[in-house]
Prior knowledge:
Blueprint: H1 4-15, E1 19-22, E2 27-32, E3 35-41, H2 49-58
Antiparallel strand pairs: 1-2, 2-3
Amino acid sequence: MANKEVKNLVKELEAQGFEVTRAKGNHLKVYLDGKLITAMASTPSDIRSLANSIAFLRRNGFVYKGH
């Protein structure tokens, strides 16, 4: 994971009880209570990709504090 924002997001997810695993290629899978919540790019090329992932995670219980 080269993207600083993604690294910070992963730390926040794990602190809130989410599990983050590396998938094929440059993707991460996010689980909560053993259930797959979403897959996201670990090196997003689209400027909105990270914001869209955060919005989806928020709808599934994640509280984003941002940095």
